[in-house]
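Apologies for my clumsy wording, but could you write out the amino acids of a protein and the tokens describing how it folds?
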Amino acid sequence: MKKNGFTCRLYNRKLNALLAALLTALSPVYAGDENFSANEVNLSKTRLGWGTVLTGKVISQPVRTSRGFVAPHEGNGLTAFSENGKILWQTAFPEGISPYLTATHGDMLYLVTGGTKLSLLQNDGKKAWTKDSGFVITESPMPGRDGRVFARGKDEIACFGTKGTIRWKKIIKEQNEDIPLSQLDKGSVFLFASDGAYTVSPFGEIRGPFKTDFQVEHADTTDFGALVTFSDGSISLFTENDGVPQQKWMLPGDGKKTHLITRGFDRGKAAILSDGKITLIRTDTGKTITSFPVHGSPATLKHAERTTQGIILISGKNASCYTDTGLIEWSADFPDKKKWTHIIPSDQGFLIFCTTGWTLEAYRVKQLPATQGLTSFSTPEPGLYSELYGKTDKVSSISQGRAVNESLSAEMKKAFSEGGFGQKEKDWLPLLTNEMNAIGTA
């Protein structure tokens, strides 16, 4: 019996060793995992997960795409890379690039080059078109609902079509470039200038100025209108009625500044960071979903967004991640000597440092299943501006003839090719919609 018992124990030890070896072999291995903690990570003691060298330091927060990120950097270059550090493409622009970049449908990108030019890049970094706006563009381009895109300068705002044609260009003096463009619920652009707020329809119709009671700090677009934060900490959702901004709801402030977090959320939700607290709200009603304490405040914040890991707050010395219910997923202390311009929190558990030494350096802060392919990247659903233009009963028929006659057809073709048609589009769209519907039902 002793011999059999010894043999049994020996067999069990060998079996356990074999199972342990198999589990180790089947588990993904990442550099630095030996220092991984479920909650706290000291990046000074964590080995680099991956790194790559650029031709200069990153000049603005990299934008997210469905395949990873695109970073503009010194040397007039763009580099696209995956979450695991694979370089997807690199390209340079001799005319120079500005730190203004926006991702849109199909991983295409709007980029400002040469100060005054707007370029649309294909998902491989090659130019689809470039158009000179005639003014210095001072902000990342803002895509519209139907393929058009808006760009603005200090005193100008312009609308570009899908092929780069400038549909209209308007003057609004002394725009506040610190407050980004946003869009109201029906699609008009909402902007702020030294004398108040303005709305600009997709067809170039300007309304304003409209006075505000408090100093505006920030604005962002949601599915239900423009979210605006004020210097007293209050937040309002603005919609529009005949081009006039309407306050749909307001959350009072406590006299202290707040920071609005929309990046990574679907546009029906947002997070509000105040001193030591995050509040999740529904953007249609302003009602609180939940509220919880955090280590962070608007004063110390460098960057914030929501990834598939959770809500990530980045300050100068550390970062932390919270679930939507307030549980802390992880916190990470940065190396004291690490010099960086921007940090990218990834969906796959990395913090990617854009260093002043022209490198991208990624440290794993959370181990995720190898099969997890979730992404926080999304683009708004395409739509129309039907609420902003009228309707017509005109349609081509045998009895009434063509709704779009040869003269009007020639005018439209010339206008869409050369641009500058502005408000005429309001009259054309109902006709074109009816004609397309008639063709579809024929």
